[in-house]
Design goal:
The complex is a heterodimer of chains A (657) and B (434). With 657 residues, chain A is an alpha+beta fold. Chain A contains 27 helices and 16 strands. Chain A is globular and about 90 Å long. In chain A, 47% of the residues are buried. Chain B is of the alpha/beta class and 434 residues long. Chain B has helices at 11-16, 102-106, 126-131, 179-186, 199-221, 226-251, 268-284, 313-317, 324-350, 408-417, and strands at 44-49, 65-66, 84-91, 141-144, 166-168, 171-172, 290-294, 352-354, 357-358, 363-368, 380-387, 398-401. In chain B, the strands form 3 sheets. Chain B has an 8-stranded mixed β-sheet with strand order 2-12-3-11-10-1-7-4, sandwiched between helices. In chain B, strands 5-6 form a two-stranded antiparallel ribbon. In chain B, strands 8-9 form a two-stranded antiparallel sheet. Chain B is globular, with a radius of gyration of 22 Å. The chains are: A alpha+beta (657), B alpha/beta (434). At the A-B interface, helix 4, helix 8, helix 9, helix 10 and helix 18 of A face strand 6, helix 4, helix 5 and helix 6 of B.
């Protein structure tokens, strides 16, 4: 349990009150009480309700539809299965993928759901499927022969079976690695093998003197995990088809749909199974069809909430799990929703803390902050001039680095704003080489995870915080050079919540081929031309302060053309010299802490922040209050807790209350 | 199939009857005997997008009219000359400022204004206008060789470079970039060469699943308020589209799809060929008559193995004439992309469409880029190639100098020729004078 002092620090807003057995108490006192309650057996504790005095405006938002990541995370949690990330189309929306304003439903999405569900059902309920003709050799009605035979395998590892005719020996290999040598002399030898790895190319190579014909080659996914048992608890041949299907859906549907499921929900799925069996399909085949149907159902894809007022316990559980894990509630959370205890403030708070310490937060909140807010996922798709060292491996390590830093911040009491000037980072051997940092593999685990990454001090090499990390620096650079404007614009918008304004329509193209001066010299025009200065005075210094990092985030003292790097500048009358000074300056801007909280809140609520939300002329808007109330030195955990306990999180909208 | 003489089958009749060949290229009974050119089925529409413009110096044209001299990068189209119409000196007025690739890619087929920011505006694209009038299993298909964002944008949504198809304002239609996914969307597993016998069973499964899913949708619909119902309606509309698709497919014969692409196809030329073959099969099997096909996203960074320096396309498009080696590499890429278009056209020309016509005869297949010239991002001097005869409406073997007409006029013409009688589209000033 965290200290009571920290709890009191949580919500020091004068407006935040909760009902406790009809006695209105300030939140700070309540939280102290909660800390006490947590150490005793739970007694009668009231339910979280918005206080009418505390009532502030919660704007309406559209129903949430699962994002690609959320859908795939749910599959991970339902079946311990990694769904193919690329089958569903990516979100094209706003700052965060889960911004409901951008989550429209296109035909391409619903069409892709079909193959997505199909793939998952095939992996959960593996069945033998024909491999078809070999790409080499000769194939006919009675199989394939003619020497080397080759097939492309579906996702594996797989079981393989076929009938071999002939005499001699042959090697079976996946991706060129032989894993089985068979000596045979048979008119028809039935062979069943399991590939040792998830390979893509299956080859069967008879030796020089062997004649071999292969007929009826089939494969079946088998990675050694029994997923069928995870959702079918009975034997249909004993209890009957419809009873067994019903038993399965009774348990499975409330998990997959994140709400209690009734007869109405189960009946159509049971009918699929019964009809399929009546048409000669096996029970498993029918269940597989039903699984596809439920994974394509709007009840799976949408998270409906009551149109007005306070969320029910299950909707609250879903908001919480999608906020922190980008996935469905786990069993513990669902139980707390079933018995309603989740709506007790102490339980809600304790649950939030438990979830923040669960590894699923990596693929949820932390991933959203790293890959979407700090845009680290963009490094996956950029390409770089050959003069820069850059590869998919480096890009993956860069993404992981930023995620690990945020994870470290989440699990510590450090202020969230430390993200801007954190004096250490996490590197693996690849990144250490890339940055020119020492790497000691023996230190792996010094950050609590044995994953090839070690925690290293970076002040000595002139780096501090997420804005000095490879992922950010690379994703805000162009193919052949850095972009001080993109870097500056990003910091202005996403760290300082300042809007430099629109680009005027008549901006001349920047001459990339001019070699008469350094990039900086040539860009100084931005600030000498009065038409450009108003915006570029804001953006450019922030970017120039990072010029000592190249287009792939390495430290440098000269650019590719040989010009010396100048990374000093003046931002709003504050002069700074180099990235460390810039980091300190940015961190200490009064709006920085508010801006960071705003980003977390925007993700939590699944809607973009409008100027209305933060307009000081609208003090009744919940978010203005929350942000005003949270301390500038709040940790990420504190911010998350404040958001979860806020009216904005607990209400769909305050209209009609 | 019943060959009725002297009578044209309506599409509806075709759907209801034993018309197992609905949508297939050979549709004899649907074409009135005396008017081959004006097919009862409106022509197909295909838009092939080649990113990063056409290097002005290489694409210089000499003469206009019939039997014109083709610019050197079009050499691969010479064999198809009778079917080619080249339009040059067209203009695009609807972009300025910083979204130099984002905006003109986004409005390539819309000719509508695009705003900075995530709510980018734009409007429905011409392929979707045409698609709305079609009844094939896929009213349209949107294909691309790469997705992602431009990575260049300051103000404009970088996602705009990933699609030339839009369902309406702020509605970017995602493109299919994975050949295997495309294959699986367009053809059922039963249509792989290996297990034809599965077809009926797979359709039964899809029917059974769709019934349950649609049932869930209508139950959920009753529980939502009006605001949320609009979103569910989008889902319902898409599900009904799948249902309609299934009904049409139930009337169609099983059509054998190309073999699934092997994994490990990583070089761009091979990727394009694999995608093209699936696209062609989709047309051959009557799965769609409207298609957009991006050979790369706007401002593509793709590298082509045949260039010696292996520099990215967009980077090469910005080299100046002082670097003739790089310019030659850029032109090599442009020639290669035209060759891919030529491949599509020649394959369409090989497909029989009945009554002595080929599929290419009954197709309007345009080819163009987001910028006239990648070096300058020029908005004037656009070239658009049209392949095919749009059911006899395009003579072919022509070079038309369009004298500053907006490219929207091409889009308007495409719609009109493809059976959608629009009076204007985007910033069009009128149909092309042919």
């Amino acid at each position: 349990l965290l200290s009571i002092d920290l709890n009191i620090d949580l919500i020091v807003s004068p407006w935040q009150h909760w009902h406790l057995r009809d006695v209105r108490v300030p939140s700070s006192l309540l939280l102290s009480l909660m800390a006490l309650f947590a150490s005793c057996a739970p007694t009668e504790v009231s339910v979280v309700e918005p206080n009418s005095d505390a009532l502030c405006e919660v704007p309406a938002k559209t129903v949430a539809r699962l994002t690609r990541q959320e859908a795939n995370n749910i599959i991970r949690d339902l079946f311990a299965l990694r769904a193919d990330g690329a089958v569903l189309p990516a979100e094209a929306g706003g700052a965060f993928d889960n911004d409901t304003g951008g989550l429209s439903v296109s035909f391409a999405l619903v069409d892709a759901q079909r193959t997505w569900a199909r793939d998952i059902a095939a992996l959960v309920m593996p069945r033998w499927t024909p491999l078809g003709a070999s790409a080499t050799g000769t194939c006919g009605e009675f199989g394939c022969d003619g020497g080397l035979l080759t097939w492309t395998l579906p996702r594996g590892p797989v079981d393989i079976r076929f009938t071999a005719y002939g005499q001699g020996t042959f090697d079976v290999a996946v991706d060129g690695v032989v894993f089985q040598t068979v000596a045979f002399n048979s008119a028809a030898l039935a062979i069943e093998l399991r590939t040792p790895v998830d390979g893509r190319v299956l080859t069967i190579q008879p030796d020089a003197t062997t004649y071999l014909r292969v007929d009826g080659a089939q494969v079946r996914f088998n990675d050694g995990v029994d997923r069928r048992g995870a959702w079918i608890p009975c034997d249909a041949s004993v209890v009957g088809v419809s009873t067994c299907a019903d038993d399965a859906f009774r348990v499975f549907l409330p998990r997959a749909f994140r709400r209690p499921a009734g007869d109405d929900d189960r009946a159509p799925l049971i009918r699929i199974v019964v009809d399929a069996v009546a048409n000669g399909e096996t029970f498993d085949e029918g269940m597989s069809w039903a699984l596809e149907a439920l994974l394509r159902s709007p009840s799976f894809w949408f998270r409906p909430e009551p149109s007005i007022g306070v969320l029910g316990a299950h909707e609250l559980a879903a908001r919480l799990s999608f906020f922190l894990w980008a996935s469905m509630p786990d069993d513990e959370l669902r139980v707390a929703a079933d018995d309603g205890s989740l709506r007790e403030p102490a339980v809600l708070l304790a649950t939030t803390r438990r979830m923040l310490h669960d590894p699923r937060v990596d693929g949820g909140l932390l991933d959203a902050l790293a890959s979407q807010w700090l845009r680290t996922r963009q490094v996956q798709t950029v390409s770089r001039d050959a003069r820069y060292p850059f590869s998919a491996e480096i890009a993956a390590s860069m993404q992981r680095e930023t995620l690990l830093v945020l994870r470290d911040l989440l699990l510590s009491d450090r202020p969230f704003t430390d993200a801007i000037d954190l004096p250490y980072t996490f590197v693996d051997a690849v990144l250490a080489t890339h940055y020119g940092l020492p790497f000691d593999a023996a230190q792996d685990g010094n950050d609590g995870l044995v994953d090839g990454f070690v925690k290293v001090d970076t002040t000595a090499v002139g780096r501090a915080g997420v804005l000095n990390q490879g992922a950010f620096l690379t994703s805000t650079s162009f193919f052949a050079r850095t972009s001080p404007v993109l870097r500056g614009l990003f910091i202005a918008r996403n760290i300082l919540c300042l809007d430099p304004g629109e680009v005027p329509a008549d901006v001349p193209a920047f001459n990339e081929d001019d070699t008469t001066g350094s990039l900086r010299d040539r860009m100084e025009r931005h600030r000498s031309d009065p038409n450009c200065a108003s915006c570029h005075t804001l953006m450019d210094p922030l970017g120039f302060g990072l010029e000592s990092f190249d287009a792939v985030g390495r430290s440098r003292t000269t650019d590719l053309a040989g010009f010396a790097i100048e990374d000093d500048d003046v931002f709003f009358d504050m002069s700074f010299d180099g990235p460390l000074a810039l980091a300190a300056l940015v961190k200490n801007q009064p709006q920085t802490s508010t801006c960071l909280m705003e980003r977390v809140t925007s993700y939590a609520l699944g809607r973009g922040f409008s100027s209305f939300d933060t307009d000081p002329n609208h003090p009744d808007v919940c978010l203005s209050r929350e942000l005003a109330s949270a301390s500038a030195s709040a940790s990420l955990q504190t911010i998350v807790e404040a958001v979860v306990m806020s009216n904005a999180f607990l209400l769909r909208t305050s209209e009609g209350l | 199939m019943n060959m009725l003489s002297g009578r044209v089958l309506s599409r509806r009749t075709m759907l209801r009857g034993a018309g197992y060949a609905v949508g297939l290229p050979f549709l004899d009974a649907m074409t009135p005997r005396r008017a081959h050119a004006q097919a009862a089925v409106p022509p197909r529409f295909l838009a092939v997008f080649a990113p990063c413009g056409f290097r002005r110096q290489a694409w210089t044209t000499i003469d206009s009219g019939v039997n014109f001299t083709m610019p050197a990068p079009m050499a691969s189209l010479d064999a198809l000359r009778p079917h080619i119409t080249l339009l040059s000196d067209m203009q695009r007025s609807l972009y300025t400022g910083t979204g130099t690739h984002e905006v003109p890619t986004g409005n390539f087929l819309t000719s509508a204004p695009i705003e900075p920011g995530a709510a980018f505006g734009n409007n429905v694209s011409i392929d979707q206008v045409i698609a709305a009038t079609r009844n094939e299993p896929f009213r349209s298909l949107e294909l691309a060789l790469e997705g992602g964002t431009s990575g260049l944008q300051l103000e404009y949504s970088g996602a705009l470079v990933s699609s030339i198809s839009y369902g309406g304002p702020n509605l970017l239609l995602p493109t299919e970039v994975a050949p295997l996914q495309l294959l699986r969307r367009v053809f059922t597993d039963a249509e792989r060469p290996t297990n034809v016998a599965e077809a009926a069973r797979q359709k039964r499964r899809e029917r059974s699943i769709l019934d349950a899913v649609l049932g869930d949708a209508s139950r959920l619909n009753g529980q939502l308020d009006a605001r949320d119902r609009a979103r569910l309606d989008e889902h319902l509309t898409a599900l009904r589209e799948l249902e309609r698709q299934l009904e049409v497919l139930e009337q169609q014969t099983v059509c054998i799809a190309p073999e699934a692409p092997g994994s490990g196809v990583t070089d761009r030329p091979r990727e394009i060929r694999v995608m093209s073959d699936i696209a062609l099969a989709a047309i051959r099997c009557g799965r769609t008559r409207v298609m957009t096909f991006m050979l790369g996203r706007g401002a593509s960074f793709a590298r082509y193995p045949f260039t010696a320096s292996n520099r990215g396309h967009h980077e090469l498009s910005h080299v100046d004439d002082q670097d003739p080696v790089a310019v030659a590499e850029l032109v090599q890429i442009e020639i290669f992309l035209v060759e891919q278009y030529a491949y599509l056209l020649s394959e369409l020309q090989r497909m029989d469409d009945g009554n002595g016509t080929t599929v290419l005869d009954n197709t309007f297949a345009m080819y163009g880029s987001e910028v006239a010239d990648g070096y300058t991002h020029a908005t004037i001097g656009h070239k658009i190639i049209i392949g095919g005869h749009a059911g006899g409406q395009l003579a072919g073997n022509q070079h038309i100098i369009a004298s500053g007409q907006p490219t929207a006029n091409v889009l308007l013409t495409a719609a009109q020729m493809c059976g959608v009688p629009l009076a204007s589209f985007g910033d069009s000033t009128g149909p092309l004078a042919m």
